Amino acid sequence: MYPYLDPAVLSEVERIDPAVLRPKDLDSRKSVLKEIAADLGYPSIAGRVKKSSQYGSRTTDVIRALAKEKGLYYNQYIKSICDEVTGPDE
């Protein structure tokens, strides 16, 4: 569910020089994660082009509509879901 917290991924990340983490341009975003995916045996994932699913799938529009139904702003609705899952912030 949270691949970035997987011990194998964390182990790979710990070996990376922090200087290479900042992308040089928009095309090289997530290049480090793609390299890690390839190193861990997932070349098909590493070769995928990044697409923002919330834009193409209109997920944001659906979330805004659900928030409006509850009389909440978008951020309030998202926070309410997070609080429901993880417990409210103290």
What does this protein look like?
- The chain is about 55% helix and about 0% strand.
- The protein has six helices and no strands.
- The chain has helices at about 5-15, 30-40, 45, 55, 60-70, 75-85.
- Helix 5 (about 60-70) packs across helix 6.
- The radius of gyration is 18 Å and the shape is elongated.
- This is Asparagine synthetase domain-containing protein.
- InterPro entries: Rossmann-like_a/b/a_fold.
Brief account:
With 90 residues, this protein is an all-alpha fold. The chain is built from six helices and no strands.
Largest sheet data: none
Report the helical percentage: 40-55%
- Please provide the count of β strands: 0
From the spread of the alpha carbons, the general shape counts as elongated
| Overall residue-averaged pLDDT value | 81
- Tell me the Rg in angstroms: 18 Å
Q: Counting H and I runs of at least 4 residues, what is the number of helices?
A: 6
What descriptive keywords fit this protein?
single chain, 90 residues, mainly alpha, 2 domains, 6 helices, elongated
Architecture blueprint of SSEs:
Elements: H1 7-14, H2 31-39, H3 43-46, H4 53-56, H5 59-69, H6 74-86
Helix pairs in contact: 5-6
InterPro entries: Rossmann-like_a/b/a_fold
Organism: bioreactor metagenome
Protein name: Asparagine synthetase domain-containing protein
